[in-house]
Amino acid sequence: AWNIDANSPWARYVFDIARFEDPSREVARGLLMGFLLSLLFKDRVKSVPIVHFHSGLSGTLKTAEGQAIGWVLCGMNFLPTLTPSDRKEAENCLINAPGYILLDESNDLSQLQDMLKSVVTGGCIRRRRYYFTAAEDKYVVDAGVFLTTNSLSVSEDAVTARILQFNTGRVTEFHSEFEIVQRWRREKLRDVLWTELVGRAAAAMRELTEAEKSGNASLTVNHRMSSFFVFLRMLARQEGCEQKVLDTIQATIDTQN
After folding, report:
1. What's the rounded Cα separation, in Å, for the pair 59 and 52?
2. What is the pTM of this model?
């Protein structure tokens, strides 16, 4: 379910779009596949981490990779959302997102740290129902969040510890977006990728059931994103690649530091 190699359509058509500098491409594939699976198993992964693609350079295809994920999850009309600088507008974006949102050019996150903290810790956004009453409505952000930045501005520890950060490098050759979209439609790549993801989700269900039967459901990790990494470790133990998850966790810690 979780283990992925270079031959996977997800690797060839989505995860390998950007050029990863830290962590490595292999680690990045595993983390991104874990992110997708955790979106499908939110009953078990209570706090889905935020994916954060960062580079001090332009032309690294950060947005292109986030958009490709959106094409699969939300349809070929999916577009990036320019990150609002106003907190309330950003909250509206998160509340109304259809399961996945790509916040592009999120370079000034200092004003949004509290909101992001609520997202990654499983909190909710509160809104007064009417200005003349104290009644409140509560909105739980149920979307996977993908950020792209050219400068780092997040300093809140609760946020940085729950972000999957990927540092990307410049790409020297580019295809036109029109050509890419036409290829996706011509080769029905969305169907191909959805089929693989559904197959992986079914395999994950079987592996989780087997883990519970064999007493391998109660695991621990040395990272604050415990629900996410315990989920991956359970899958990996059933697949015989548990050490790969442990190495991935360490690589994540190294990148965050």
Report:
1. 16
2. 0.90
CA distance 82 to 85: 9
pLDDT digits (tens, 9 = 90+) for 186-209: 999 999 999 999 999 999 999 999
**What is each CA distance from 254 to 53, 86, 171, 248, in whole angstroms?**
16, 32, 24, 10
Is there a contact between 255 and 165 (Cβ–Cβ < 8 Å)?
yes
For the chain, give the longest Cα–Cα distance.
59
Pure H helices in the chain: 9-10, 25-40, 62-74, 87-96, 113-120, 157-160, 177-186, 189-213, 226-239, 242-256
Model pLDDT for residues 155-187, shown as the tens digit of each residue = 556 667 778 999 999 988 898 989 999 999 999
Is residue 220 a contact partner of residue 157, using CB atoms and an 8 Å limit? no
